């Protein structure tokens, strides 16, 4: 209680930037936690085919978001908040206008050919129209939220975020219980209703406050910054969504749902990776700027070890995770978890290189590597899923992330050469050693999924070894935490 009280006192007296960062992190953890915990509730309330419809909807929404919103609330937004400091409301109104215009253009194209599009999406017209509306609403909400983050006005944003996160699954639960057929559609409607209502309110609010719908300078800035990044955003979405879409078309919606649950377990620590990266990057950038690049070598390895240990726990308890989230119907997908977990560690390694590419503003090189890996993912899925079934998608994801990490390492090296910077930010020998050991342990654990007692004995032995080395582990954690605190203090 003493430590908690001290921490709360420090937080109370901390700068607004630190308070906002903590509030956003906690809000994000709660939001993702609720979404993750509702999976076992909803998949037990409907058939795998019906649950598959909702996962396919999510996949297509992710893809259409790129073309309708151009990710204007992400890529160029923070830069625009600085560049157009006195015209922030106008810029947000312009971004909303662009998104609405592209949404209307899509609907104009969609309606005459809706039967063709519906067969492609494997979704009814109602859900497609809800999807477009939700994209526009979420864009407005994201723009408003982005400005709140930028100005450290976190209280309203956290309240709105948590309200949607709590109310949406409650409405979904009520709608699913109220219908005997179309439960997948009921889940989608429940999921998007509050998002649309709140987002529509902010669309109107942004327009009233901004009072600007066309400005040549603002339109040109927004479009010229984000349109070149579309291949990058699309490729990232293909990584995350194409597996489910292709499984849905090749194997059926039920298999897409089964795969989604296992994929969600494998990627459950994504938000942890993002939180670590958000704290780590400012510190690393400071080291690059001051010329103390070698200080980053140990830090990068410590964080990679931390991620590897957490992911190893996910792999060890994958069968139990599948039973909790999906039940026996989903156990055939347990073999998806290990390769997806390795993919997440590869994503962390890739992010190390991407951070450097962004620091030196080498976006073109980033796009090339991402597109190549995404094309590989699509090609391998088309080739292997019909032969080996949906489990093959996990290994095509692994192969693609391996390609992604390799390409980003090459572009990272090229970036350093271009800017005449020594290649001493990372100790690649240890980075690869950690990856190799984690991969070997992961594939050694997989055969034990069918032998629960032996697996538990192995886990117990691992815990004993960890306890015997607890002091060393504490030193590593304290070192990482100390660096993160330096980062926070530097940022404030």
Tags for this entry?
2 domains; about 0% strand; 22 helices; mainly alpha; about 500 residues; disordered C terminus
How are the SSEs placed, and which strands pair?
Blueprint: H1 2-12, H2 16-37, H3 39-44, H4 48-69, H5 77-83, H6 88-110, H7 114-121, H8 125-150, H9 154-177, H10 183-210, H11 216-226, H12 230-250, H13 253-266, H14 270-290, H15 295-316, H16 318-325, H17 337-359, H18 363-388, H19 392-418, H20 428-445, H21 452-468, H22 470-491
Helix pairs in contact: 2-9, 4-8, 4-10, 4-12, 4-13, 6-8, 6-10, 8-10, 9-10, 12-13, 12-18, 13-16, 13-17, 14-15, 14-17, 14-22, 15-17, 15-20, 15-22, 17-19, 17-20, 18-19
Gist of the model:
The protein has 492 residues and is an all-alpha fold.
Report the mean per-residue pLDDT as an integer: 80
Overall tally of domains: 2
Gyration radius (Cα, Å) is 23 Å
Low-confidence stretches: 483-492
The number of helical segments is 22
Largest sheet: none
Percent of residues in helices comes to over 70%
Work out the strand percent.
Answer: under 5%
Q: Find the structural class using helix and strand composition.
A: mainly alpha
How many DSSP E strands? Answer: 0
SSE series? HHHHHHHHHHHHHHHHHHHHHH
Shape: globular
Tell me the span between the first and last alpha carbons.
Answer: 27 Å
Describe the structure.
The protein is an all-alpha fold. It folds into two domains: 219 residues, no CATH class; 241 residues, no CATH class. The chain has 22 helices and no strands. Helix 13 crosses helix 16, helix 15 runs antiparallel to helix 17 and helix 17 packs antiparallel against helix 20. The radius of gyration is 23 Å and the shape is globular. It starts with a helix and ends with a helix. The relative contact order is 0.10. The C terminus is likely disordered.
């Amino acid at each position: 209680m003493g430590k908690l009280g001290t921490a709360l006192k420090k937080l109370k007296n901390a700068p607004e930037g630190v308070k906002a960062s903590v509030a956003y992190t906690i809000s994000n953890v709660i939001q993702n936690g609720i979404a993750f915990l509702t999976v076992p509730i909803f998949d037990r309330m409907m058939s795998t085919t019906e649950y598959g419809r909702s996962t396919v909807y999510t996949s297509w929404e992710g893809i259409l978001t790129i073309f309708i919103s151009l990710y204007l609330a992400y890529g160029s937004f923070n830069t625009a908040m600085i560049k157009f400091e006195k015209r922030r409301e106008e810029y947000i109104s312009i971004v909303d206008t662009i998104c609405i215009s592209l949404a209307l253009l899509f609907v104009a194209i969609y309606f005459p050919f809706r039967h063709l599009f519906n067969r492609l999406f494997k979704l009814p017209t109602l859900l497609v129209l809800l999807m477009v509306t939700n994209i526009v609403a979420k864009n407005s909400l994201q723009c408003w939220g982005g400005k709140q983050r930028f100005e450290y006005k976190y209280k309203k944003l956290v309240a709105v975020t948590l309200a949607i996160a709590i109310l949406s699954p409650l409405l979904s639960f009520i709608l699913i219980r109220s219908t005997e057929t179309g439960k997948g559609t009921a889940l989608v409607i429940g999921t998007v209703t509050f998002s649309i209502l709140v987002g529509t309110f902010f669309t109107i609010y942004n327009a009233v406050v901004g009072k600007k719908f066309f400005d040549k300078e603002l339109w040109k800035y927004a479009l010229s910054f984000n349109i070149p990044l579309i291949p990058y955003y699309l490729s990232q979405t293909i990584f995350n969504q194409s597996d489910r879409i292709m499984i849905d078309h090749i194997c059926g919606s039920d298999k897409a749902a089964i795969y989604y649950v296992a994929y969600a377990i494998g990627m459950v620590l994504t938000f942890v990776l993002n939180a670590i990266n958000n704290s780590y990057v400012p510190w690393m950038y400071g080291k690059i700027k001051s010329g103390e690049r070698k200080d980053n070598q140990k830090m990068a390895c410590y964080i990679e070890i931390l991620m590897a240990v957490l992911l190893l726990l996910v792999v060890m308890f994958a069968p139990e995770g599948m039973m909790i989230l999906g039940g026996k119907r989903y156990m055939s997908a347990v073999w998806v978890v290990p390769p997806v977990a390795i993919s997440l560690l590869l994503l962390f390694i890739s992010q190390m290189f991407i951070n450097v590419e962004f620091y030196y503003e080498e976006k073109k090189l980033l796009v090339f590597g991402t597109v190549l890996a995404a094309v590989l993912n699509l090609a391998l899925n088309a080739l292997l899923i019909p032969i080996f079934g949906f489990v093959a998608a996990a290994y095509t994801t692994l192969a693609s992330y391996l390609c992604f990490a390799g390409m980003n390492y090459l572009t990272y090296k090229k970036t350093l050469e271009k800017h005449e910077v020594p290649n001493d930010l990372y100790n690649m020998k240890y980075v690869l050693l950690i990856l190799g050991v984690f991969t070997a342990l992961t594939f050694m654990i997989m055969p034990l999924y069918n032998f629960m007692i032996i697996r538990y004995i192995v886990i117990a032995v691992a815990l004993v070894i960890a306890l015997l080395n607890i002091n060393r582990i504490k030193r590593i954690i304290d070192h990482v935490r100390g660096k993160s605190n330096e980062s926070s203090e530097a940022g404030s």
